[in-house]
Amino acid sequence: MSKPNLENTILRSLNKAQHRAVTSEASTVAILAGPGSGKTHTLTSRVVWLIQHMGYRPSDVIVATFTIKAAREMKERIGKLLGEEVEKKIILGTFHSIARRYLSIYGRHIGLESKFNIADDGDSKAIIQRICKRLDLKVEPSYAKAWISKKKAKGTPSVNAPKGQKNKQQEHPDLARCFAEYQDHLERSNLVDFDDLLVKCVELLRKNPECVSNVQTVLIDEYQDTNGIQYELMKLFAQARERITIVGDPDQSIYGWRSAEVRNLYRLLREYPETEEVSLEENYRSSQYILDISLQVIEEDKNRYKKVLRPVHTKCTQPVLRSLGSTSTEGEWIVSEIKRLGMMFGGMLKNEDVAILLRSASLSRHIESALGKAGVAYQMIGGKKFYERREIKILLDYLRAVHQPDNNDVIARIINVPRRGVGDVTVKSLLEEAEQAKISVWAVLCKHCRGERRASTNIRANMEQRLSSGLLNTIFTLRKKADAITKDGAVTLIDLIDSLLNQLSFKRYLELEYPEEHETRWANVQEFMNLVKDFMRDYSQMDTEELPEIDNVTQTKEDDILGKFLANVSLASDAQRDDGDGDKSSMVTISTIHAAKGLEWPVVFVPSVYVGSIPHSRSEDIEEERRLLYVAMTRAQAMLYLSCPLYGPQGLSNKVELSNFVAPFASKAFAARGPSIDKKVLESVAKILGREAPPEKRVFDNLPSMFSPEDDTFPLSPIDPKNSDGTEENGEQHYARAPKRQRKDAEKCTSGNADQPLFKTYSTTMEDSSHFTMSSLPGFMTAGQARSTISASLAAKENQPSGNKKVAKGSTHRDSNQKSLLGFVSKGTGAAGTGPPEAKIGSSSLGKQLQHGSRPQASVPIGISGRQQPILDPALAQHKLGVGKRPMRPTVAKPGQDGAGKQYPCFSSSPPRQPSPEEPENEPTKEASASSRPAAVFHSTTFTTAGTRLGVRRPVGMGPAPSLDRLRKPFKPLTMNRPKGR
Ligand SMILES: Nc1ncnc2c1ncn2[C@@H]1O[C@H](COP(=O)(O)OP(=O)(O)OP(=O)(O)O)[C@@H](O)[C@H]1O
């Protein structure tokens, strides 16, 4: 590309403020702007401008980024504009990589050999542990390591010469001693740790400014996250000409725990008073709704550096704050919403367009398991998949060994965990010995410990002793316990794992092995316990897995609970495994919020927005937590979903409250459920993403049968089991899972109080089938319904009045307060008003509503007190739909009706009917629309009956596929009116 052309290309892609920043001739330029305002874009353009237009040599330009990913992306963008040859000459990378480059070339000047090695985190930890032990220092090695690192990161004068500077440390004198010894060790070994890369580079450039005498300009990305030593380094890089450009956003400073200093911004403006400040005020990333709501969150921080941020995009859809009953329901809802969006956007939104951003990696388990169950591929950024985390792997290995000790690999992995002084050589010789004797390693160990085999040279007697008192005893004890596990719960899997944790002193083990992150790892262990609890609850209902008995074929009763648990885990982790060669682009991204910085996705979910999660219970800086939520929300381009369960991962003992960062405006600013997707939404999302909206016909044609186009599969007001019937025990069952036996649950529900929404606020055509004439169609009845119908039919023949009598089993008499099917038809009567109100999400409502398990259950009309009740009113029992009769055209909305009613993309199992002029009041009200459901699903019976093939079809006479707008016409009950509120 020729020079003027390139300049044009660059400048054309910029708005006015960006243009000013890119072409500024000031020595120091500070671009301070909000998320999505094009800071990175501007910085990249400035690099190109300075090289192309100002004629700087690429090798005289330093560009420092915060992450390797950001460096890579910037290289790519610059490479495209200037060519790879030019791009390669630019000194572009993270602070650490740039520092390493200088040290390897000029390190000799400060006594550093050019071939120095880098001590990684593990090396540093081991060195410090050895020092503390050797010198008997009275400090925790982990604390000492963190202390040393902090000292270095701050860039204090002591960092270069810690030895002998006794007055610098207020803390324990042993810390200073440890620091000095550690530094001494690194120097003797020609090692440089991560912090030293920066510290030594500062030392080099202070003493030898000529090393950077060529540097024309220095540009820094994500400036708000630089720490003290990085600030010093920036100044030293730029010392020859003092030309610096920084881009940053104080609202996105989220690395305080890594000694990042927001104060560096003020320091820069103070030390370089001539700095030209440019603010970028247009947000190109997010919809207006997303931006507005994110700003509401951050503006609560009254001490922040205020900036203007205007959306360039339209409102699009209102961000969602969804209330769910439990963390597992939350995971399931996210998956259902991802799938719904995929379908309703006709393939325009794919899995790779979705990110689930978590405050802490330990929250990922429910999400991972829901995605795994649904077969949705995902990738993790900023954290390992749950089952791959070290602490979880160890526990699973132990359980596997307990279950099947002859598994050599497992024994080899745990033989020295926790440390038992068994090295690789011993393990190798054990494996060889086992192989020669053709027995398992476990058997070899047992023989050694019983004295039946002589210790080989490598397996010394004292080691045998250690193994027998450690590994062998642990496994033996646990095996006994595992054998005692029974389904009745006298000894449970939880007891077994508790005992395992005790035997291994696992918490202590994590503290010693992972001094800096033992709390997170222990949180994962607790999460693992929750997983086991979930499994145990499910297990008690696992009778469905039994196979029917066959004559003369003996069955073995499967009561191996541990085995079943391990098999479940293996299957789940297999579903979660990255397919190495698979198409990574079709994966949903799960990321920590920290790791999502600087990135963007069309759709973003932020689960577990509750106090304790965000703000995090262990965080010391509440405003940094607020900024984290802000960063998460502003990653979203078109659609943003926040969610909050009633209870945290520990279940009923862990009731949570909506995060105070969103609570004050939750009810006004957020929608309570995912948006309806119509043509307008399709087009506005497409516009934001710069994509082509799919034709409506394609969307429509591809909707599968039994598909609900609305976010209505989960209740808007989840039932709080602790409030539902007063007994926590029941609640626990309720909360844990949607009970398998829906009848039982329905019975429970009928005894609730009318103030609380005992029923789910959603339903499907299938579940409400008993309210439709469809129930009377052949092949669409349960046995119970059939029995009731027959009885009802007989009763109708006898023309018996329903009366007020109590209903006996099998009787066709209705209870006095039970509405007949016709009762539902008559307007304003019956169950109207007893249904739950539309959920209002807010601090007051969240967590107070009742929660109803995780999956839809059959709803039962209020007043029907048990399964014996007739499902159909006698008068209607004889009502038949003529077989083969074509369903009529669904109700067409009248002009002036808004879209608040129900949508109609597919067909109900019930035949549609023509609008009736007598029934204007029966139009669903806004309230009713939440609880009535879209006629979005249909049953294959519809098609069988109508003599059509399976699949989404338009009824005869409907003409071409309706547009999505058309589909959004208010739902009208098809053959009868249902009371409001249901
Ligand atoms: N002038 C512009 N016109 C159109 N799109 C732009 C413009 N400037 C930036 N963008 C687009 O806006 C989005 C956000 O840009 P960028 O990532 O540079 O923002 P940022 O300020 O660095 O965001 P964050 O601080 O959140 O990381 C990108 O998709 C980018 O291509």
TrEMBL record:
Keywords, alphabetical = ATP-binding, DNA-binding, Helicase, Hydrolase, Isomerase, Nucleotide-binding
Which superkingdom does the taxonomy of this entry point to?
Eukaryota
CC per GO annotation: nucleus
The UniProt record gives the binding positions of ATP as 33-40
GO MF annotations for this entry?
Answer: 3'-5' DNA helicase activity; ATP binding; DNA binding; hydrolase activity
| Polar residues compositional bias, start-end | 842-857
Keyword Translocase in the entry? The reply is no
| Similarity-based family | Belongs to the helicase family. UvrD subfamily.
Give the protein name, as stated in the record.
DNA 3'-5' helicase
UniProt KW Aminoacyl-tRNA synthetase keyword: no
Which residue ranges does the record assign to the UvrD-like helicase C-terminal domain? 288-598
Task: Please report the organism this UniProt entry assigns to the protein.
Answer: Clonostachys chloroleuca
- Matching Pfam families, A to Z? UvrD-helicase, UvrD_C
**What processes does the entry annotate via GO biological process terms?**
recombinational repair
What EC number(s) does its UniProt record assign? 5.6.2.4
The catalysed reaction is: Couples ATP hydrolysis with the unwinding of duplex DNA by translocating in the 3'-5' direction; ATP + H2O = ADP + phosphate + H(+)
Domain named UvrD-like helicase ATP-binding: which ranges?
12-287
Enzyme category, top tier: isomerase
Q: Where is this region: Disordered?
A: 705-760, 794-982
